[in-house]
Structure prediction request, 145 residues.
Amino acid sequence: MKIETIKETLKMMDKINALLAEDFQALYHFEITPKQSILLQQVQEHKKITIGELAKHLNMSLSSTSQLVAKLEQDGYVKREVNPANRRETFVKLAEKAKLMYAEIESLDDVVIEKYFSKLEEEEIIHFQRFTNRLHDLILAEKSK
Prediction:
């Protein structure tokens, strides 16, 4: 019973994501792959981060991470900066194109929140937040084993 309920819920989440994709079509011109998106999220979260730290967060090799950063740098999404305290170390930071992309995402998030999420009861939103936080923590704990 529990597994079937989870499977049904996951299918519904896929349907919700497909419906919300229509609201985020304005972002398609950025042409970001899922791996690039995850890397950019890490850079945005940390403001500046080394390639080694990115590789750990992404569970990728240093060379694969470096190639991904090089492609994003070539496309204008990130820039590299030598660490003045350790010249052998390079920081990765968001470039202007990524900052513009995140500004667009924030605007679209506001529209989606107003259009859909604002229609939920406050208690539903609190339960949703607790659930997503709990699931996040469980996944992190499992991955760190």
Q: What stands out?
A: Helices lie at 2-23, 34-46, 51-58, 62-74, 96-115, 122-143. The domain at 33-94 is CATH 1.10.10.10 (Arc Repressor Mutant, subunit A).
